Amino acid sequence: MEFSVESLLKSGFTKRELRYIYNNIYSFGGTLEEIVRDLAKRFKVFIYIFIFTVISCSLVIYFKWSDPWYVFSCVITLLVFDLIMLFIQPPVISFKCWRFCRVSKA
């Protein structure tokens, strides 16, 4: 798998997103390959957590439907948790990194 600026641009990254990645490299160290793989892993972790929260919301709604305030508070809490997780990482860049790593493996 080739981790170069040209291959990232061909896979759909914009110059602004690459600038963001390189600013991260200059600030915190590492290589382009490490950053792309790390962001791809973060995207997968976010998807797993999102699926877990959707299942949790479904279970709360199914088993506690008689207490609407409990259901409402749980759903709002899990929604806020998902939003925090979404904004901790750059969602578009991490998705593109995940897609790049998945496509480049084949």
Q: Please count the helical segments.
A: 5
> If you average the pLDDT, what whole number results?
88
**Mind describing the biggest β-sheet?**
none
Main structural class: mainly alpha
Count structural domains. Answer: 1
Q: Return residue spans where pLDDT drops below 50 for at least 5 consecutive residues.
A: none
Report the end-to-end length measured between terminal Cα atoms: 9 Å
Q: What Rg do the Cα atoms give?
A: 18 Å
In short:
This protein has helices spanning 5-10, 15-28, 32-63, 68-88, 91-105.
Characteristic key phrases:
83% helix, 5 helices, mainly alpha, elongated, 106 residues, single chain
Description:
This protein has helices spanning 5-10, 15-28, 32-63, 68-88, 91-105. It is mainly α. It has one domain. The longest helix has 32 residues, at 32-63. The mean pLDDT is 88.
Secondary structure blueprint with pairings:
Elements: H1 5-10, H2 15-28, H3 32-63, H4 68-88, H5 91-105
Helix pairs in contact: 3-4, 3-5
